[in-house]
Structures are given as structure tokens and as C-alpha cells.
Amino acid sequence: MVYDLIVVGGGPAGLSAAVYAGRSILNTLIIEKKFFGGRLKDTAEIVNYPSVISSSGIALVEDFRKHASSYTTNNFIYGTVVDICKDEHEDVFEVKTLRKGTFKAKSVILALGTESRVLGIEGEERFQGQGVSYCATCDANFFSGKDVHILGSGDVALEEADYISKFANHVTIIVLHDDGIVDANETQKRIVFDNPKISFMWNSSLDKIIGEDCVNQIVVKNLKTGEKKTVLSDGVFLFVGLKPQTDIVNGLCKMNSDGFIIVDEKKETSVSGLFAAGDCTHTYLRQVVSAVSDGAVAAVAAERYIRRKEKI
Fold this sequence. Notes:
The structure is a single chain. This protein folds into 2 domains: 2-115 and 242-311, FAD/NAD(P)-binding domain (3-Layer(bba) Sandwich); 118-238, FAD/NAD(P)-binding domain (3-Layer(bba) Sandwich). The chain contains 6 helices and 17 strands. By secondary structure, it is α/β, with parallel strands linked by helices. The radius of gyration is 21 Å and the shape is elongated.
């Protein structure tokens, strides 16, 4: 069997693509590795998606999935994609999974998303799940009444700091920049600066994470003086950068030096018929609204690619 379209990834971009594929009556297979929703499912509160004044990430994901599932031409499976290639002779794509077999399609949309970047800080790997976390929604409640530290000063870091403060006794944000300078929008900056349970360590970096069975101390380095200071900490949340999950297409299509997929205005990659959408692409903005837009564009472009091929 050859599907019209295979969508790899079930986050906002993938589910949006599925909606538009369904509207075009394309026989579509959506393959998700673990949980539908991508990083959105781990977001405590969404306040910047049009028409949604406030919602949890999980609730928004459920709405996306219900919409995509309402089209009878959409088929959903869980599976780990390990390889994608194009059979130039048959002019079809082959998508190989770890345990579900190999599927064929006339076109493929990559909605691979991103994952938290591991920083290589001493103690980071050792204490993952034992005081080191990359997900506030997943783990904040484990730190109820405790003192925690956050590394990062972007929108995500400050949003998560505010959420974690609802559980923790105190939250300290470690920031590389001078006093008062963060990489977040003004609204989020004001919310966090006004929160009495949140403080900052400016001009600082996280040098080491210490503990026995779990985290109990960290070493922070002052970037101006070089001085290192050991402070008590019950846990560390790391929100510094994202890594694209694009290893499975390494060598298949063009990517930038950071591994993000390069696409044109139709979200088509350097391989004809292969499209990419959302956070895994080389893009200026990585938000739910932009991922959804990408998915729509990719699905419409894929449908036109398929119809054009059928006429040849």
C-alpha cells in the first residue's frame, strides 16, 4: 500500500498538517514516537494562541488531536521512525520504523520537533531524574516547599520559573547577563520580576551539580570575577536552547550547521516531495502558532505536489 502522505511527528505542526491533509481527502498516516503534542504537552499554560485566552498545553493538544482525528482518511500509529529514503525509480518515499515495519508514501512531512539541549555540565547527566530536570510541568510538584535553581533567561525559562514558584519555596534564576537583562518578552519579564518567590543571580553560569543520591548543592561561577561559590539547592531546571530531532534525515536533505532543516516558502526541503514544518526547521520563531501555520502550508504544498504528479 502506498499512502498519499506520511506525517512524521504528532506535535502542533504535525497535527495541523493532518487537519489540512484530511480536508484534502489525502490518505494519510501520522506516526508519533511517544506522545502526541510534542513539547506543547509539557507546557503548563498557553496564553499566546489566538482565541485561547488561557489553556494548558495538554488541553490544547487534545483539541488538536480531536480535530485531526475527525477525518476518516487520517490514520494514527505510535512508532519510532529510524530511516527515511526516497525511491527515485518508483518516485515514492519509504519510512522505516523500529517495530511497525516500513511504510510508503507519495510525499512526506517532517514534523520532528526539538528536544532540550544537554549542556554537559558536571553532574548534569548523573542527576537527571534525581534533581535535574528539563520539564517544569513534569517535575515541579516534586519540589514542593523546596529551593530550586533555573538556568536560562529566555521566554521559556521565565514562564517555567513562574510556574515552578507555585510549588517551590523559592526559585533562583541563574543569568549570564548583567543586572536586569533577560532574553524574554517584557510581559513575562514583569511577571517574574514582581514575583516575591523568585530572585536572580546575575553575570553567572552553572559550573557543577553536586549531590549523593540526589542534588543538594550547585557551584555557580561569577563571570566577571571568576569566583566560584557553592550554594544549597534541592533541584536544577535547565532551559537553555533546543536541539532539533533531525538525525533520521541527516544526509537526506539540507540542514544548517545546528541541524535544523532548511525549507523554502512552501516548507519543501531540498528533496522534491519532502516537506518539513515546525520547530525542526530553520525558522525565526518557534511557537505553537508558527508551528501550526507551518503544518498547514506544508500539507497544502504536499497536496499540490501529489496532484501535480498524478497528472504527469
